[in-house]
Amino acid sequence: MNDEPMRISEKGMALAVEILAQQGYLDEMEPSDNFVENFIKIKAACDKYIEASIAKGDTRSHEECRDAIMIGYFHAYLQDVTRNVN
Question: What is the distance between the alpha carbons of residues 71 and 22, in angstroms, rounded to a whole number?
């Protein structure tokens, strides 16, 4: 496996957060001044989104599948970041 860290653009992160917010997965999140704490909370929102997306299965639209891929990639990035910080 490649040891190079995963990269996601700021635009990609913003889009993923926008998707989570639009779908209501960030409604209960209280932002913190600690960015790692925020990443952990957003990662938990990604977990819930991914679980719901998998449950929906074949009934997902093309747009929902595209969004799920973006959230999955963002989730992997957040896992990488929080693993290296903890």
Answer: 13
* Helix locations, 9-61, DSSP H: 10-22, 35-56
Per-residue pLDDT of the chain (86 residues; tens, 9 = 90+): 455 555 678 898 899 999 999 999 999 888 888 888 888 889 999 999 999 999 998 899 999 999 999 999 999 888 888 787 65
- Encoded tokens for 21: 């917010």
Residue with tokens 């997306």: 53
CB 42 within 8 A of CB 26: yes
Q: What does the alpha-carbon distance between residue 27 and residue 20 come to, in Å, rounded to a whole number?
A: 9
pTM score, two decimals? 0.81
